[in-house]
Amino acid sequence: AELDALRRDAQRLPPTRLLFLEWIDPPMNPGHWNPELLEAAGAQAVLAAPGRDAQRIAWTRIADEDPDAILAAPCGMDVATVERELARIAGRPEWRSLRAVRDGAVCVLDGSAYFARPGPRLTHGARLLQRWLVDYFVPSSGQKP
Known about the structure:
By secondary structure, this protein is α/β, with parallel strands linked by helices. It contains 8 helices and 6 strands; from the N terminus they run H-E-E-H-E-E-H-E-H-H-H-E-H-H.
């Protein structure tokens, strides 16, 4: 029921190509159930591996995709740790070249709490992402976060 509600609410979002980083360095794509959650939240999951293990992806592939938005939510990292990890890669030319990075369209969430473990909190994580997407990409929703 919650996934259905997410999908209904996602209809007000513009098409958004989102890269979900399940790990930052080396970068890893979303696998297992996460691509489906991203789609339910209203994002098009780029470089995703639905139903499979997350896989390492090359920075050049990420740069070639140039996503509209990035969700950084690695397993085992709280928000503060993710922010420190992102600061460590801030100097990478591929990272700096990404439109999402230049535009500030990078969302950080607790991956262990909301995306890595099967259970009811998965839909809560997808709802948090959707709220961020609405706040960021829907002009009538207010200021960009």
